[in-house]
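Comment thread on ticket #2218

A.B. wrote:
> Attaching the input chain for the structure job we discussed in standup.
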Amino acid sequence: MGHKLKITGWIALGALAGALTTVSLQTVARGTLEPLPLEELQQLAAVFGMIKSDYVEPVDEKKMITDAISGMVSSLDPHSQYFDKKSLKEFKEGTAGKFVGVGIEITQEDGLVKVVSPIEGSPAFRAGLKPNDLITKIDDTAVKGLTLNEAVKRMRGEPDTKVLLTIFRKEENRTFPVTIVREEIKQKSVRGKVVEPGYGWIRISQFQERTVDDFAAKLNEMYTQDPNMKGLVLDLRNDPGGLLDAAVAVSAAFLPENVTVVSTNGQTPESKQVLKATPQDYRRRSGSDPLKSLPPGIKKVPLVVLVNEGSASASEIVAGALQDHNRGKLMGSQTFGKGSVQTLRCLDARYSLDSCPTTGLKITTARYYTPSGKSIQAKGIIPDVMVDETPEGSPFAALRTREADLEKHLASGQGEEVKDPAHEKAREEALKRLEDEMKKPVAERRPPEFGSDKDFQLTQALNQLKGKPVLVSKTLVERKEEKKDN
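C.D. wrote:
> Ran it. Output below, let me know if you need it in another format.
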């Protein structure tokens, strides 16, 4: 996850099994020895022993311990996760931009698997899965009771094999089956084109290992096609994030050298960083600088950045850095608000993460802060100009899930959160509008493709670059983080 935090050989954690068999353990935390809660660990061992000896039928001891670890980790926040050997391999394949599966970004909600967004061009995308769809069954297995890790394993598999997903679509109040043929997902995270003479559009759908190289190649291709670029739209809508170093690199492409892109802060020394627009902070391992080939005009070209509720994590870092340095105009809607750093570690201290043959832990270790010091976590980035999705507005924006809506989400660290009654009322009104919308034919309900000539927000971004009037939002408002009374 970028520089010291990216996915390359972190410190290993000790095994839980040792804690179950010893009564005088200590743990290293923040450089000092601290006693473990021995009474609670003894209770855990006692429960383990009772289940093993008294349960109605024999139990799988290893599975019990694995489930205990998974439960402990999942109780922290929505993004910390325990990986067994297979799921660790699959997770690393995902960050590399290829894996065999159905092609969806997911999270958990009420014990079910929730679709954050289908990956563009994937089998799930072609099958018509939508953001906020809930997966209730995978083949014949109910999702309720499965960990997110277990659900992912059941959806992954061999190429050309089928998986049957049962989908509950809340806005249509219906459940239906979808059969999807698994395939190797080679996600191309960068698309772009010259939309009209002098104006370009470049979209990043996720920040992966090859994103920066592909980003530089696409920009060079666009400048070769039209060397006299008058304006550029950087599209980060529905970009769920990814690798931190890739986000720093994309920011550095547009910013002056050595300015701050993002800072992180947590309990360990490794989690306290300031990452700048310089090759040593974004170049992966010892490779060459992928930004060297970019045309000099990139640093000065007028820029609009499009974001929405699906823009999370790494995409929020880019948006926040460009906004704080006044490098571009942010347009769209308030972003997701995932401003936390997840560190991936091998649980066998003998191995680096790249060669880890066993289990791993993805654990939240820090919060992100924009160059001006603002926390992204559970707040998100507020665009300079709120722009609706369509000329008629964004009537369903209140229904979209953001970080602050997730159970057990990490607080921002800059003020306590409380429920916003106005937002709850807006949700109720949006649900009523949705009932009427569902009566329309399916073809009329399908949103226009990003980058198409019917993309309303892109049209407004181009108007901004040309100095033409922009149709500001009729429905979008900032979701503020209120403070509790002391």
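A.B. wrote:
> Thanks. Noting for the ticket: Residues 1-32, 482-486 have pLDDT under 50 and may be disordered.
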